[in-house]
Write a structure and sequence with these properties.
Shape of chain B: elongated
Structural class of chain B: alpha+beta
Oligomer: heterodimer
Order of helices and strands of chain A: EEEHEEHEHHHEHEHEE
Number of helices of chain A: 7
Distance between the termini of chain A: 25 Å
Number of helices of chain B: 10
Shape of chain A: globular
Number of strands of chain A: 10
Strand content of chain A: 25-35%
Helix content of chain A: 25-40%
Distance between the termini of chain B: 27 Å
Chain lengths: ~230, ~400
């Protein structure tokens, strides 16, 4: 079993006024390579907080989170940035595309950070845009795209460097049903073809329908963790 | 991360900011051009004033009679001395030109006006003064004066005006003098309140044969150390002019300080706004693998590139102007000569390498600092909040 993420007794507290708000209360989890899993729960259940800590954008207050054999709490900001740059992909609810860049430039950006040479970069970007069906929009700016297209660009940007782990926070929240299914199918296809691990944070039924593993969170705790057989979908 | 990548990203953002970028760039380029132009003008003025003072008044330097004190008008009439015998050869070869000073009063149009009389040989060649106009057959007393003096006294060429003076014994004398010529000069110290007349005439009028107050020298002759005639070189004699121009230049500094401040406020404002507006972008950059330090550098670079673009824009529209001004000059109206310091009809700005590189470097450094200050906020931003646009 190839472990990608290991969460051990994770507690996350945020300061509020004179006290603290505890967003995660002793979470234990393991994600293995190639999983298509989701953290499911209502707003405030702690799913985004957990996703941020796995994504090294935040650190645990207590406990340990090990991502690709590296303990998140012990990483320096530079090491955390290095891990994100090389091994992690992010997909956000609001796409978070760089508005002044074209589609091509947005997808190219992670490769620029990796100092990949120009020819390889171009080839990789076009190949990735082909996966998400956006080669014809390479020269467009995000403002010229639909919501579904923007999210497909975000998927391409997350996938272009072939990360081991993709973290998607409410990726379908701003999309209609047709676009939601479209991007979820795209991600499922990439998961199958590249064996990339996907972890979602969602409360969208459409997303839940695609997940292979559903981890229910409520009030900062895991209330259930179940594998879903494909036939159920 | 390669610096080339950083530059490319900064450039993409700048271009993406569109009109705002170009407004900042234009204001900054205007500042660049204005500072260089004003400094170039002062530099040109400085050079021109010193050169003109040398051409019209100083030549290679001056021996001053030891009794001569330019700051004591009461001693002028008694400050002359006989030409030293050791300079006789140079005198005959016109390598030195004696000038005799005396006080006098003219009565143009019934008004009384005090003047400084200066006697000089009509065939002198050391100064640019048109002294050949002083040659005469003895039937009258020809004089020349500067345009400013003529304007003040309301005199024209061939006008006759009564001159009154005192000889060396203190006796008052008077004669009618004829304006033989009016010259235009940038050097007020040979113009304002002065009348030039033939040396031998003034010597006769003041009963001081062979006497002179100063001796103007040709540049190349060896300087003698004479206790009764201390020598003043060009540097010493132009010191005052240079000091006056430097004092005037301080006034101009205020103007371009204001322009520069305006440009920097525009950049600062843009940077603060863009950091507020682009929090989500900043969070995304961090999520994609940039360190906060790299993001701060990127924003600082973006601000600094405003200055770089301004240099390019400034070169495009400023360079032709600089060339035109330095070739054709800038016309200065005569009335400006009341400014009190040497001012030519035309000013030719001089742009030195030090001036251009110094100004550009200074503005680049200050722009980088102004860009860095708001960018520091990024380092304090929580990336998870920034991604959601809620960090500030």
């Amino acid at each position: 079993m190839n472990i990608i993420v290991e969460v051990k007794n994770l507690v996350k507290k945020f300061p509020i006024g004179n006290g603290f708000f505890t967003a995660l209360k002793g979470v234990d989890l393991v994600f293995t390579k190639g999983e298509f899993a989701g953290l499911v729960g209502p707003s405030g259940s702690g799913k985004t907080t957990l996703l941020n800590i796995i994504g090294t954008l935040d650190v645990p207050s207590e406990g340990e989170v090990i991502v690709l054999s590296k303990s998140v709490g012990n990483l320096t900001p530079k090491e955390a940035a290095q891990l994100r740059k090389e091994e992690l992909g992010f997909i956000f609810q609001n796409y978070n595309l760089l508005q002044v860049y074209t589609v091509f430039e947005n997808v190219e950006f992670p490769l620029l950070l990796l100092n990949m040479n120009t020819d390889d970069r171009k080839q990789r970007v076009m190949e990735t845009l082909e996966w998400v069906g956006l080669t014809e929009k390479a020269g467009s700016r995000p403002s010229q795209l639909s919501g579904g297209e923007c999210q497909r660009v975000a998927i391409a940007r997350a996938m272009v460097k072939r990360p081991q782990l993709v973290l998607a926070d409410e990726p379908t929240a701003n999309l209609d049903a047709a676009n939601s299914h479209n991007i979820l199918q795209t991600m499922e296809k990439l998961n199958k073809e590249l064996n990339t691990t996907f972890i979602f944070a969602t409360h969208d039924e459409k997303v839940i329908g695609y997940l292979h593993r559903i981890i229910q969170l409520a009030d900062g705790k895991i209330v259930s963790d179940e594998q879903v057989k494909k036939t159920l979908r | 991360m390669r610096s080339g990548t950083m530059i490319m990203m900064a450039l993409r953002s700048l271009i993406g900011n569109g009109l705002k970028t170009w407004l900042n760039v234009f204001v900054l380029s205007f500042t660049f051009v204005l500072i260089i132009f004003m400094q170039g003008l002062l530099e040109g003025w400085n050079r021109q004033a010193v050169t003109d003072t040398v051409t019209w008044e100083i030549a290679g330097g001056q021996y001053w009679s030891e009794k001569y004190d330019p700051y004591d008008p009461f001693s002028i009439d008694s400050s002359a001395a006989v030409l030293p015998s050791s300079l006789k050869n140079e005198y005959e070869a016109h390598e030195i030109e004696p000038v005799l000073y005396a006080k006098g009063t003219i009565y143009p149009g019934g008004r009384m006006k005090g003047v400084l009389l200066k006697g000089i040989r009509p065939d002198q060649k050391l100064l640019a003064l048109p002294t050949y106009l002083l040659k005469n057959d003895g039937s009258d007393v020809p004089v020349i004066m500067g345009a400013h003096m003529a304007k003040q006294a309301n005199l024209k060429v061939n006008d006759l005006v009564t001159l009154r003076w005192r000889d060396v014994n203190g006796t008052f004398e008077a004669i009618d003098i004829r304006v033989a010529g009016i010259f235009r000069t940038t050097v007020p110290t040979v113009d304002v309140g002065q009348i030039w007349l033939p040396l031998d005439q003034l010597q006769k009028m003041t009963l001081q044969p062979n006497a002179s107050t100063i001796l103007i020298t040709k540049g190349e002759i060896p300087i003698q150390k004479l206790s009764a005639w201390p020598f003043k070189d060009q540097t010493e004699l132009t010191k005052q002019t240079v000091a006056m121009i430097q004092a005037k230049s301080k006034g101009y500094n205020v103007f371009y300080f204001i322009f520069f401040t305006m440009a920097l406020i525009a950049i600062f404002d843009t940077q603060v706004l863009s950091i507020f507006r682009r929090q989500r972008e900043i969070g995304t950059l961090v999520a994609l693998g940039m360190t906060q330090k790299q993001v701060v550098s990127l924003f600082t670079l973006e601000g600094t590139m405003n200055a770089l673009l301004a240099v390019i824009v400034g070169i495009i529209w400023g360079l032709p102007l600089f060339i035109a001004f330095s070739v054709y000059g800038i016309h200065i109206p005569m009335d400006v000569s009341s400014f009190g310091i040497p001012l030519a009809d035309k000013m030719y700005p001089a742009y030195t390498f030090k001036l251009i590189v110094g100004t550009i470097s200074l503005i680049m450094i200050i722009t980088a600092m102004v860009s860095y200050m708001p960018a520091r906020k990024i380092a304090r931003m929580n990336p998870t909040d920034a991604i959601r646009g809620k960090a500030l």
